[in-house]
Amino acid sequence: MKKICIIGISGKLGRYMLDHALARGYEVTGVCRPQSVHKLDAYRGRVTLFPGRCNDREVIRAAVKGCDGVLTVLIPMGMDNYASGMTQAVLDFAEPGARLIFSCGWHITLDGKDTYSFKIKAIVAVFGRIARLLRFAQLDDQVEAARRVFASDRAWTVVRGSDLEEGPSQGLPIWSAHVGDAVLAANRTRRIDFALFMVAALTDDSLIRRAPAISAPVARAINTIAA
What we know:
alpha/beta; eight-stranded mixed beta sheet; two-stranded parallel sheet; globular
């Protein structure tokens, strides 16, 4: 792995991924909206940016050219099939053999065998309804984006994150194939560690065509609360 692209590089998760990628010596390109370029001023000279909407196919085509891996933040933003459009562009234009890593929440399911709590179901249902009414986000489009990834024969991984929080790194999160597994009981992950898992997945072939649900171990979460 020598060169990677981060789609959504200016967001919090994107910038954490950028830090982890640079620490590993990767050459990095990234896509972000033109109005967000200033958020990356501290990285000038260390990253090549392609300003534009993350579902702009020509922007994606240029950004992923020559990249060994692509990290994509699946954001269900707006009402114009933003997530699925972004995903399709990555699937269409990424180099053959490139590792494709996507991020989403626990509500995405690969095989329908996940077990969700009432709380998670309620949050998804209420947020999805409100977001659609306000024309702010399209959760069903994120589901469609994941469906397209799952149907692809690419070397993909879809990383499904639990509740995110800020704070110092607690190390690489643990994962399970299914939400509801007791090892994920903490239901909490530091955003910096979500990014760490995404970058680590680039070189972990055991995660190819899998959708790991991640979380910090329960012990780490308890220690955080106690502190």
